[in-house]
Amino acid sequence: MDLNGKHVVVTGAAAGIGEALAERFHAEGARVVVADVQAEGAAVVAARLNERRPDSAIAVRADVSTEHGNKTLVETAEGRFGVIDLFFANAGVGVGSDPLRTSELEWQLAFDVNVHAHRWAAKYLLPGWLARGEGYFCSTASAAGLLSQIGSAPYSMTKHAAVAFAEWLSITYGGSGVKVSCLCPQGVNTALLRAGDDPAAGISSSVVRAAGRVLEPAEVAEVAVAIIRSETFLILPHDEVLTFMRNKTADYDRWLGGMRKLQARMLGGA
Ligand SMILES: NC(=O)c1ccc[n+]([C@@H]2O[C@H](COP(=O)([O-])OP(=O)(O)OC[C@H]3O[C@@H](n4cnc5c(N)ncnc54)[C@H](O)[C@@H]3O)[C@@H](O)[C@H]2O)c1
Fold first, then answer.
1. Does residue 2 sit within a domain?
2. Could you tell me the distance, in angstroms and rounded to a whole number, from the CA of residue 229 to the centre of ligand 1?
3. I want to staple 203 with a disulfide (CB 3.0 to 4.6 A). Which of 132, 151, 249, 259 is the partner?
């Protein structure tokens, strides 16, 4: 997809990867809906984009952890810029750790934002896209959705589910003109990763930092634009993730053993 002139919605766009995606899509010539539960942050990003090109962006306060939040977001975006060409379900949370220490509220939030938000958005996007015979759904899962997230069961489970939903969408509607891509980064320098640096948060962030280079959000957005242009499925800003995936599928038990060793090393260092 050539993004020039397209109507793009990005959730979680007030900060981090979402902000960088919004910036990059806008630089390609897209009209951008900057959606986030943080209204002020979204307004700042949209104002910056409008300074560069008047009337090319709006901020929408949207809580995607509910069906209503997704429905209202789709309706608001369509009301302002018409048919949505690309919807990027990027908002995510890194709550929870070991199941023994994770509250039911944290489980619920992780599933609502990291998984259910994607299917709720799709529910309100697909009828229009299927009628038109085109539309593009992108989601931000994580390398944790292809591999695992040492230190966090909720993150591992919800990100696997996000990848599963994106795959399912592509299989089911790819033949009807709906394009799907799934962003699966490893470490990215955002508030989400930095929050995990607090020793009280466990070892998740230290594992991510040990696994490879931490990219800047703009580097991730650069790769996302290239993959969207090619309309292929996996957006892998870290090349090593493909190698790790291949290792996992080549010998599952060996891969599990390696992950246990990495966990022991991180716990020893903690
Ligand atoms: N940073 C990393 O290392 C990393 C790695 C892999 C995947 N990811 C994923 O990337 C995505 C973006 O995360 P980030 O790293 O930029 O973190 P971030 O915390 O900088 O940004 C997340 C944004 O999502 C918004 N958000 C959270 N809950 C929301 C809700 N209910 N409704 C609307 N917006 C909401 C936040 O307000 C924030 O602006 C997430 O899905 C995350 O899981 C991040």
1. no
2. 23
3. 151
pLDDT in tens, 143-189: 999 999 999 999 999 999 999 999 999 999 999 999 999 999 999 99
Return the number of other C-beta atoms located less than 10 Å from residue 178's C-beta.
21
Q: Which atom of ligand 1 is nearest to the CA of 12?
A: 24
Does pTM top 0.85 for this prediction?
yes
List, by residue number, the catalytic residues.
155
The total number of structural domains in the chain stands at: 1
- 252 assigned to some structural domain: yes
Q: In this structure, is residue 1 part of a structural domain?
A: no
Q: How far is CA 151 from CA 72, 155, 238, in A?
A: 35, 9, 20
Name the residue at shortest CA distance from atom 17 of ligand 1.
Answer: 192
Which residues have any ligand 1 atom within 6 Å of their CB? 11-12, 14-18, 36-38, 41, 62-65, 90-93, 113, 140, 142, 185, 187-188, 190-193, 208
Give me the domain span that covers residue 34. Answer: 7-269
pLDDT digits (tens, 9 = 90+) for 30-53: 999 999 999 999 999 999 999 999
Rounded CA-CA distance 237/4 in Å is 22
Domain contains 70: yes
pLDDT attached to residue 269: 65
Query: What's the rounded Cα separation, in Å, for the pair 184 and 182?
Result: 6
CA 163 remoteness from chain centre: 10
Number of the ligand 1 atom closest to the C-alpha atom of 94: 43
Which residue lies with its CA nearest to atom 43 of ligand 1? 92
